[in-house]
Amino acid sequence: MAPPVGQQRQSRTTATHAGEQAVQERAGEGGPGWGSPMFGPEIPLGFFPFLRAQRMVIIGAPDDNGAMWSTILTGPPGFTRPADDRTIVVDARPAPGDPLRDAFEEERDIGVLALQPQTRRRIRANGRARRQDNHLLMRTEQVLGNCPKYLQTRVITSTDDSRLPGAPLISSELDAGQRRWIADADTFFIASRSPEHGADSSHRGGRPGFVSVTGPRTLRWPDYAGNQFYMTLGNLHDDPACGLLFVDWENGHTLQLTGRASIDWDPGKAAAYPGALRVVEFTVDAVVQIDHVSPLRWDLQEYSRVNPPVRRD
User: Which of 33, 154, 237, 269 has the fewest Cβ atoms within 10 angstroms?
Assistant: First the structure.
């Protein structure tokens, strides 16, 4: 009989994350014992109503080849819910053609980001998951809330269930329209993973233009001041493989990239981006665009007041 989801790797919740501590030391922040392992595996009772209220979650996971991907899952309120203080159930699967569509036939690492743009609140849960019947069953290993920095305020204006997801457009580089999409974005999501500590799903935000498209297979973005835990950068220190997700909020389309990222610590490079502490460089290995993935239609209300200005080339 297979062990309960996540049972065989529970020890990761208390193990020191060397990647996070290495980045903290390089940044001159943190101290002994810092790093995300300080967050426990239990879902605080106060998080239960928030999780049940969600209409979307962002997940990050590796495919069978080890490539990292980020994708969106949506449903009515209650489609994501805690079953107990270590279990999250998600009644949704990635869209047909999504690189993670069938990934959870076998248990694997997962990072879940429950993000509510209306209230600028977010919760992160990392652990292990597999598909069971028609839902995703996750055993949590790390759960934490995040501050609202760099989150844009958006509200749902309508729900359009009339259109099924389109056929995936797959390539090894970005076309002109996709490059414009990224250059105009104020938000993206990043999936990363440490072999010793599992997967994570996180958010990046800024003014439109904060992500620079430097070529058909290369991107660059500033790394702004955050919570100093460096969960994403710590994972990238251990393993540069990561996945990016850009959402067309008005039409429900998704643009998924998988590739490799590196941290550029050169102060001169960071100085070119207002508010940046570092710069992250990303190289694309594969691109997947799927139209009409999400039925949710969002309207931008306000940019985060702490978004730095963007560089003008």
Answer: 33
